[in-house]
Structure formats: structure tokens, C-alpha cells
Amino acid sequence: MIERLFRPVDIAPLVFFRIVGATLIAIECAGHALTQFRQPYVEASFHLSWPLTPWLVPGPPAAVYAHMTANVVAALLVALGCYYRGAALCLAIGVGTLLGMEQTAYINHTYLYALYAGILACVPANAAVSLDARRRPQLARATAPAWCLYLLRFQMAVVYGFAGLAKLDADWLRAMPLSVWLQLDAGYPLIGPLLAAPTTAYVMSYGGLVFDLLIVPAMSSARTRRYAFAIAIAFHLTNVVTFGIGTFPWFSLAATALFFPPETFRELPFLSSRLPAPVATASDASLPGTGRRLFLVAALTAYACLQVAIPSRRFFIDGNPGWTEVGHTFAWRMMLRNKVGRLTLRLHEPATGRTWSEAPARYLVGRQVRTVSTDPEMIVQLARHVARHYAEQGRTVEVRVDAFASLNGRTPRRLVRADVDLAREEPRLDTFDIVLPFEDRGKSP
Prior knowledge:
This protein is of the alpha+beta class. The chain contains 20 helices and 6 strands. It has helices at about 1-5, 10-35, 40, 60-80, 85-100, 110-120, 130-135, 145-165, 170-175, 175-185, 190-195, 200-220, 225-245, 250-255, 270, 280-285, 290-310, 320-325, 365-370, 375-390; strands at about 10, 145, 340-350, 355-360, 400-405, 415. A hairpin with a 5-residue loop joins strand 5 and strand 6 (about 415). Helix 2 runs antiparallel to helix 4, helix 12 (about 200-220) packs antiparallel against helix 13 (about 225-245) and helix 13 runs antiparallel to helix 14 (about 250-255).
């Protein structure tokens, strides 16, 4: 079994994914600097931190733009195979730390790109069709250890698998989130009325569920692979038309293509004449020493366990993650809920007896306001920040909130208790006691 992980396979799929995947990541990183994604980093005076990394905060706007630019450059260097290992490591750290600096900027595919950049830093995808191989011919090789390809495939299998399991959800099976979103597309020329039809939401909901659960087994079988990939193309292009979601559909297609046999990628026009001859040399086929093999197997096993454990935490936490938000992030729970919130801060100063209200927009900007209004943990962070803000002025205030949220088109209802001073709540990883239980009373009439 261990020998199978280290047997040589054609390096073509690694080269393909390095070029295509890193180029798409570069486009995504450029979008970070050019779109509203940058707003909470460069315009906000208060940043919502992750519970485990409160020390990770953005610098001044110039530093943020430099960070985003460095991510683009690193991704392009990876695509070119130029100073590849260092560039891939810098990309993984750069994208990961940017994600960790602002909780309201979390996007599933940004997290995925950080993971894949880290994987690319560990595999020899620069051993062919790269500036590194041109500069140092001794790096060139026609094959790579099989574990490199298996790891790239595994990561996408985790995404599909947990995305499918997450769709085994009462709201998804009732097409509730999609029915809300597709109504917004009713104005599309020609296809608008079709998208807005109630039947379409059910077809897309159940189709997405079946696709996520079966695409990896179907791509793993030679008998069904071509048909499955055709369906994958249709599925992801539908997401492009309906939801946009940046480069993620195209990146997913590139990662899904990795399930084709390695030699298939030699037929691609931009690789066919540039790859080394498909013959395993002695150096290609030689196995590393026993100690190194055991270390690699242990590292791969640990990574696999971590990637399964993190999204699985949702199954061990009470409450609906779409309501509490606990276990929702880093778990591939994609496009699962439409949630809209309304938040008002109610402040009371015991020393003077004065009570007044403030809008979150006094402390937050754009996307921060929308995201914080629906997330109990972020509401607590904001309340603690407001209390600190007044404490710096020598004033002690209690911070209570009126927070209402609508989940998947339901009538808005109170999200957290209104009688608790949230400034006294301590940060925690599980559900706050102040979160009111989710009661499914159906959709709004």
C-alpha cells in the first residue's frame, strides 16, 4: 500500500493544475484588491477576528494593498513555475492570513485556495513546463510520486463530499434557499421566468445534492468518467450564470479534471509538445528511504484526518448552524442559506441612568454590517468593542441588542436575548447561551 503512494505517475496533471489553478487564484487575488472584498480591510476601524487568532489584524491600507498585490505576484510565479516552492508557500500564507484578518470576509473558495496553495508547495509541479526547470534542467522529470496526485484529488473529494452531506438539510430539501435566490433572477432575458419557476428551485436543489454526493465516485470510474465530467461542466456553468461566485466554478472544474488518468493531460495543446517524454527514468521511479516514506505517510494521514475533522465538527454541536453560525465556516456548507439580519445596539450607562440606541454602521462598514447582524458570535465581538470604545472615554456602558434574522425567507425573529449585557460575554468556540433557539415556523406568507 505504501509503495503504491510512491509509484511514479505522469507529471502532466500536476503541471496542468499548477498552471490553470494558480492562474485562477491570481485572478481571484486581483479581485480582492479591485472589488468590494477589500472594503472591510481598508475602510473599517474595527475588525472582526477569529476566536483562535485575535492577534491577526490588518495593517494600514497601504500594507493591505501590498499584501494583496504580493498574493497576485506569488500566484503568477506559481503558475509560471518560477521560484515555485517559495512562491507557493508565500501564496498559502498570504491568502490564509488575509482570510484570518477579517471574519466577515470569509469565503469558502478563498479558504480552498489557501489549502491548495499549501499542497502545491509540497508537490513537484514545477518539474516540467516551468521557468525553474528551464533555469535548472536537473529539476526536469517526467513523473512524480502518486501521492501528489492523490492529495490534489482528495482535497476536492472532501469539498464535494461535505458539500453533499450538508445538503441533507430540511431547508435544502424544501428548496428554500434556492427559491429565494432564483426569484432575483426573474428579470434575466429569456431564461428569467424559467429560473424563477418553483419547479426549477427543486430541480436544482436535488440535482446539486446528487451531484455533490456522486461526482467523485463517478469520476473515479472509467465507465462513467466522461459523462460525469460533462455533467460537472453543466453544473458549474449553471453556477456561473446563476450565482457568479468568481473563479470558483472554473477552479472546481480544473480540480475535478484531475480524476482523469494522468496521461490524458498530455493531449492538451499547451502541454503536449512541452512535457518531457513519458518514460520513467531510474531517478523518477526510485523510492525515498524508509524513514522519509514513513514521515510522508504520517504527514498525509494527519492532513487527511484534519480535513475530515474540521467540517465534521458540525455534527457534534447542538443547534442549526445556519442559525447559530457555529460549525458553518471551514465546513464546505456552500450556498446553504439565505440569511438577512437587522441589528440595533441599545446602550445603558449606569452612572447617569442614560439609555440610547446606536446603529452598527457607526462602527462597521458595508459587508461587516450585513454579516455581523446575522452572526451571534460577531454580535458579541461588536458589543465588547463598543464597551471598550466608551471605556477609553472613562465611561462604563452596558450593551444590549435587538437582533432579528430571517433564515431562508422566514418571518424575521429574534436571534439573541435582548436582556443580556453582551459586553460581559466571553469569547467561545461553541454556541453562546444568549442565542435563542431556532423554531421552524415556516416561510413568510
